[in-house]
Structure formats: C-alpha cells, structure tokens
Amino acid sequence: MLWSRLNNWLMSFSLGIAIVEEQLQQLREQGLVMESATRHLVSDEVFSSSAFALAASRQRSDASRCSHDLCAICCWNVRAYYPPPMVARRSLPQHRQAFYEGVDGVMRVIEQLAGVGLPASLWESQILPARVRDYSPEMLDELLATGAVIWSGQKKLGEDDGLVALHLQEYAAESFTPAEADQANRSALQQAIIAVLADGGAWFAQQISQRIRDKIGESVDLSALQEALWALVWQGVITSDIWAPLRALTRSSSNARTSTRRSHRARRGRPVYAQPVSPLVSYNTPNLAGRWSLLQVEPLNDTERMLALAENMLDRYGIISRQAVIAENIPGGFPSMQTLCRSMEDSGRIMRGRFVEGLGGAQFAERLTIDRLRDLATQATQTRHYTPVALSANDPANVWGNLLPWPAHPATLVPTRRAGALVVVSGGKLLLYLAQGGKKMLVWQEKEELLAPEVFHALTTALRREPRLRFTLTEVNDLPVRQTPMFTLLREAGFSSSPQGLDWG
C-alpha cells in the first residue's frame, strides 16, 4: 500500500496526532515524505518514505513503456490552459470543451497563469478575452477589490507598458517572488512611501501624500509622487486594489496624462484629505487610481516553493521539461527541478518519459496527461478537422519561440514573441504569424487549398479584441500582399483594400 491513513496508524501505536503531525512536518520540510496529491480530498493522507521503493519499482516498469516519443504532438493541445476560445475542440476532453465564463472563469485563468509575467497591455486585450467568453473589465476589478486576486509588477517596458503577474491571494506565496531589498538605489520619496504603507492598510494616493507631508513637514509634488509609486510597482514592492492604473498606463501617454475623473461624493466613513499644492482632481487621474499597499506575502521554505512551482507547471504546461523550466526562470534551473521531479516520480505522483517530440528526453507528466497524449497520438493518424485559434505571440499558450523553436521559413522576416504580434495555430501546427505593427505576415501553408477561410477569420477575431487597432498589411512571405492568394481571403475576413495593401481598422 502506497499510503496510510494517519488516524488509523496513530490508533495502532496509541500516539497523539499533534505529536506525529509535528514530526511529519519536519520530515516534509526535509523532503523525506510527501503529501498525497489527493490532500484536498483526504486531509489525513500522506506518502511515507518506505513506500518510495515500491513506487520506484512500479515507475521503472511504467517508464520503460514511455521512453519513446508518443508522436510529434505539441503539448499545446494537452491542457485547458492552452486552448483559449475556438481551440480545436475535438482534441479536448468533453469537460474541457466549453469556454470559461464569468468571474469564476477569470479566477480559473488566473490560477493557471499565476505568477506569469505578461505585458499589462495584453492581459485585457488578448489573454483574458481569449479564454473567458463574456470577459469584462469589471470581473477583474471585482476580484482585485475583494482581495481574491492581487497583481504585481515585474519589469518596466518603455513608458506605457510593463510585465505584470496575477496571483490568487490565498496561494500568492506559491507564485509571487518577493522583491529584493534595494534601499541604496531608492529615492527618499520612495522610502517615505514604503514607510507610510508599512504601517498597514491600503491608501489612496492623496492620503499617501498627506501622510508623507505629516511625517516630513513638506508638501509632495504630484508628478514626483506618481513617478515614485510606479518605480516601486516595477520593483514588485507595491500594488493597487484595481486594474485602472494599468489600463491608464497602456493607453497613449497623452491620454493617460489628461484623462481625469471627478468624484461626486465621498466614501462614507473615509475622510477626504486636503492638499494645498494640487487640486483634488489631480489625484483622480487613472494612473493613481485605487488604494495602494505593500506586497507582503509570507514566503515558503525552499522545498515547499519548489513543490508548488512543479504543481503550477503541471497545471500550465501539462509536461515539465527543460524548456518549460527555462521559460519559467525557475531558481536553480532544470537540475533543481529535475531532482524534485524524480522524488515525485518515486512517490508515484508523476511519470518520466519522452512524451512530446522536441522537448528532450527528460519529461515529467501526470498519468492523466500521458493518457490524453496517447489519445492524441491515435487521433493524429486520422483525418480530423481542427478549428484554428489566434493568440498573441507572447501568450504562454504559444509554444513557438518558447518551448519549441519557430518553424523554418524562407522569408526574411524572423518571428519573435512580442506584444502586438499574433499567431494562428491549428491541430498543433503554426499556420500564420502577423508581426508587431501589422505590416508583415508569414504563412507556413502556401497552397491556397490548405488555407481555409476560418484561418483568417480566427485572425480577425483576435484583432477585434483591440478596437483602437489600426495598421496596413503590405507583405506576406516577402511578397506584396496583392500578389498572394491570401489577399482575397483576408478581404473576406474583414480587411479592406487600399493602395498600399490591406487596411485594418
């Protein structure tokens, strides 16, 4: 038997549960025992170290049958994480065919993408709408305002964008990497903001300014306060309880600076602080919206954190591979993750093998994922129709340029994973790449009969998620778009003809 029920075991030795739980916790922290994957169903179930040998013998037998590539299938088809709306539904289990819906759907997407840093401009334009059928900004704001979800900045990208990660508040310790203290390079104003927020609670920008003034006896310049707040955001130190500041940031700089909003009434029970230097309306700019607070997450020990990272990667990618670990920037790299995966393999939690071509020889996956891959391998020998899906090239669901290399193409354009670029995929194959700015396109299936109209309809579906998008497509595979068979298909999908090529928007 691979596990023992704690209560029955204690009764047989007349031991107190508190004493044994303390000892088990110490062994767990040392990596000598592991909780069952069903701990959310049976709270008193644990793996014992004596079971590892039994599990290992079974795993060696199973692994011998999994030491070859099942097929040239991309792991994009394996998990619900990878199929946004309109994914190849026939390649999915029945319970994964529906789109996510409502606030619960947004929560599920955030759970799968917890800790993944993506450009702020993509979250609401491509990532969430591609996965949640009825997504609206109010859904994300609701989750942030209620404290169910938090966001953290990771890196500034120019003046109007940056890498942002979302986390479930309850499990933030598993996905959030605390910022390293860099007090020497922080300005006096940044340190003053941290000192104010360290007292606890969440504060509006005007309240932060007032509290700093009370501490130092000087007024705070509004533009300097805004600059200091955002510097701390990109350091991963502070956050806001709504997404509005990020929405304002990703708009054009001029719109973000001039857009203001007047408050028609004060919140009941919340004092309004006067500021003699700037009028109240200045603090209502969307760039400073919401209540700001420190990002304070109780850290996990190294063993717990690595185990949480492994669980998250299994949920995200389906398969843990060297490429996935590199993409996730896991501390210690693949060697440290491989050590943990081997322990999980010995306990029977996952299996090792070569499941997907192109991901190397050391791959780890759950049994259900492996069974699903076998089903896909069987289906690959049959003629099937898959619905094309358009994704941001920077979407984690796009495995090319990340887990797998970009397919070879004779054109001079080199595809890259950039915000603004799009890909269209179907049945685990890359069909189309639209470069950032929309001027150039690559198509991998040049025969017109292989380019069904739904390929370009999938592209325009993604483009319509960004109503303000305007561009002119001039080249396809290094040729003027008018000289390609794609010209007519793109016009039928929603592009309009112009002297330079095809206009969108």
Automatic annotation (TrEMBL):
Coiled coil region boundaries: none
Native species: Escherichia coli
Spans through the membrane: none
Keyword annotations of the record: ATP-binding, Helicase, Hydrolase, Nucleotide-binding
Record InterPro entries: WH3_Lhr (IPR055368), WH4_Lhr (IPR055367)
Boundaries of every Large helicase-related protein winged-helix domain copy: 90-168, 301-383
Enzyme nomenclature, EC number: 3.6.1.-
GO MF terms, alphabetically ordered: helicase activity; hydrolase activity
Top-rank lineage group of the source organism: Bacteria
The keyword Cytoplasm is assigned to this record: no
Protein name, UniProt field: ATP-dependent helicase
